[in-house]
Write the structure tokens for this entry.
Amino acid sequence: MNSSFLYHGWGLYSQKCTRVEYKGNTIILHVETKERLSFCPQCGMRHLVKNGYRTRDFIGLPLGGKKVIVRMKVQRYQCKDCGYDQQENIPFATGSRSYTHRFARYVVDLLKMATLKDVASLLCVGWDMVKDIHSSYLQRHYSPPSLQGVEIIGIDEFARIRCNT
């Protein structure tokens, strides 16, 4: 598959597609990172070796009404010098979530004109996944700001308000 298509379609910037699989109404993109780590992120030495891998599935943006699964071979690395042992960074997904950032943005856009249940059935995912995406979006964008370290919260020509916390 063309790397430009991966880049613009699903936001897979540093991955390459090794094969594409079609199962019913689902497209499975098998991807792995283009370049392996060459030095240890902890100590900076070049004695970093591969230490196995794990396959993870992520739900990607749908393509023409078909569900898209991004199946990534996540490499694990170990440093011979400092003992660093960790899996590679996955730039298109957060933590242990099973969907991509672009999929989450698409869900939020759909929720502006449909209900949670409608979006879940349209995308063939669980209602709880859609609810989790929506809740994290609302938390990120509409939670009250931290006032820690703020001394003056408002100044106008008549009054000056101090915050005593």
In short: The chain is about 25% helix and 35% strand.
